[in-house]
Predict the structure.
Amino acid sequence: NIVFGINANNRVVIFLGDLDQIDIGDRVIMWLKSYNIDSDHILVDTELYRAQLGCEFSKPIIEKRILKLRDAFFQYIKSKYGISLFHLESEIEDKAKDLRKPVNYSESEIKENIILLDGLLNEGIDCDELRKLYVKFISPLPNNFRDLKTRKLLQGIIASKSDDNTAKKLMSPLFYLNDLRVCFAHLISQSEVDAIKEKIVIAYELSSFSEYRKLYNVLISGLYDLYKYLRITEF
């Protein structure tokens, strides 16, 4: 219930007076004391300072901004082509409420968001309608186009406006997102899990798969770039 910030040194910043809001008998006081350190005096460049003292509104978390870009792209396609890519929107809205900005970047934090985002982005699109859009842009159609699923359809649509390499690069975060969901949420063999982890480590240039902060930030940044591209491109 206490407003806090995280500064450039990744330290939690709390206004001293706000600590009075915690009941004196609450054990969290002892927990906070045990982690208390001398200030590094880096406060001004935090969302906490800008919001509380500068009266600046913070941007929505990037996960929510990705969903806004998705919605804007869907709406654009619906307006221009009469094709509705929206799918299970009431369920999407409910699930989106559970997205949280990671604080500690623990495995459990990023795992929860990755499973949610995979459902919202990979499953939250009408594949049959997307195939109709694909047909409008791809000629000649490949023989297997009726068997293509969401990610391959979307990749083909992007390639029609750019090139294959650009499309693959833009779409790779959506494929990795699905790989990570499989790794975290599916009952598969350990060898399959290890293969997925190794692929992510190489792709994101990680020291190890447990470098969760970098893994998550690179993934989310890539997803944001993808949906920003979809939003601003004239299809």
Q: What stands out?
A: The mean pLDDT is 94. The beta strands are 5-6, 12-13. The radius of gyration is 21 Å. The longest strand covers residues 5-6.
